[in-house]
Write a structure and sequence with these properties.
Elements (H helix, E strand, L loop, with lengths): L2 H17 L6 H7 L5 H7 L10 H100 L11 H18 L3 E8 L2 H8 L1 H16 L7 E6 L2 E6 L4 H17 L15 E8 L10 H16 L5 E2 L9
Parallel strand pairs: 4-5
Antiparallel strand pairs: 1-3, 1-4, 2-3
Helix pairs in contact: 1-2, 1-4, 6-7, 7-8
The structure holds 3'-deoxy-guanosine-5'-triphosphate and magnesium ion (2 copies).
């Protein structure tokens, strides 16, 4: 094996490493140092003496061979170390390049993440702002909803007596009329009118008349059951809608109402009927046929007719038809 050739070939990576910016290392120094060739080493040994070999010469030859073999071994070892150093230097350069590449890509990634984080922060801030705005909007809508619900409620209450007003009565009667057409069950209506109320106002004054109407409303309002509606129908007239109630039941309720107003014992000195405030009540009760008109006009007309009858018969009484033919 020609070691010079091998070492010469090994120089190229060393020079390459220096070109890559490495400083002069032990490896380079080792690389540049000329290696001693075994033959040159042999040339240094003295020539054998001329003439017949003596015993000392043989010993010397043995020693020379041993030294030569030791020198060869050391040179081999040197060569191997040199090669290993060059290889590890090359690996080092590759590793450094790899580390530099990784460093560069890490820097880019960190920068990208930083940018993404900034964008995310901006997004979170704008979402938080929008959430705040939406919460305010929702609160405004809730308040408006509450207000309009309260307004709606107010719009259906009579200002004087604080019971349902005519608007609420109309809505409720229409709704119940439709429901009773579907259910095919009797719906009843009472219309109560304060007797000789004009005379009351004339005698007690209009303000006392108002107080009287409040007291009458209170008395009537104590007579209703769940599902019934007591409303101010207009002026000194009140109405009661009695769902799923037949004529007999409605007459009973009407009598209770009449008795409740009488029991309120509101003095009415000018009344030709009684010294207290009294009411006359018209009762209507109808099981609306399946194809009945959608409005409850017939029910109201029947209650009006029976109220007129009660008035005609002397007031302070309940007017109704004796016959059971209340279904129209
Ligand atoms: P009848 O027994 O036939 O029902 O006689 P009436 O006097 O009660 O009936 P009329 O229709 O002649 O008179 C009703 C009176 O009710 C006249 C009106 O001034 C009075 N009235 C209507 N609404 C109110 C009100 O809100 N307050 C007061 N104080 N009076 C009212
Ligand atoms: Mg009247
Ligand atoms: Mg009246």
């Amino acid at each position: 094996m020609n070691r010079f050739t091998n070492l010469g070939a090994g120089k190229a990576p060393g020079r390459q490493a220096r070109r890559a910016g490495n400083s002069m290392s032990d490896i380079d120094r080792l690389e540049d140092r000329p290696l001693t060739h075994p033959q040159r080493s042999l040339a240094l040994l003295p020539d054998p003496p001329q003439g017949p070999p003596a015993a000392s010469y043989a010993i010397e030859q043995d020693e020379r061979r041993r030294l030569q073999s030791e020198l060869d071994r050391l040179q081999d070892e040197n060569h191997n170390l040199h090669t290993a150093l060059l290889a590890s230097n090359e690996r080092g350069v590759l590793l450094q390049e790899q580390v530099e590449r990784l460093g560069a890509s890490l820097t880019i990634e960190v920068r990208e993440r930083h940018t993404a984080e900034e964008k995310l922060q901006t997004l979170i801030q704008s979402i938080t702002r929008e959430k705040g705005d939406l919460e305010i909007l929702v609160q405004i809508l809730i308040d408006q909803g509450d207000d309009s619900a309260q307004e709606g409620e107010k719009a259906r209450v009579d200002g004087l007596t604080q019971i349902a007003n005519r608007r609420r009565f109309d809505e409720y009667l229409s709704q119940e009329w439709g429901r009773h057409i579907r259910m095919q069950q009797p719906l009843s209506l009472l219309i109560c009118d304060v007797d000789h109320f004009k005379l009351y106002n004339d005698g007690q004054g209009h303000q006392a008349g108002d107080e009287c109407l409040k007291s009458v409303a209170k008395a009537i309002n104590h007579c209703y059951r769940a599902g019934d509606l007591v409303a101010r129908y207009g002026g000194e007239e009140f109405a009661m809608v009695l769902p799923q109630t037949n004529r007999a039941g409605a007459v009973q309720v009407a009598e209770r109402v009449r008795a409740a107003v009488a029991a309120a014992a509101l003095p009415h000195p000018a009344s030709p009927v009684c010294d207290r405030v009294t009411v006359s009540i018209g009762v209507a009760s109808i099981t609306p046929p399946p194809h009945a008109p959608s409005d409850a006009r017939t029910l109201i007309q029947q209650a009006d007719r029976h109220l007129y009858l009660a008035k005609k018969l002397g007031r302070n009484q309940v007017g109704y038809e004796d016959e059971e033919n209340t279904t129209q």
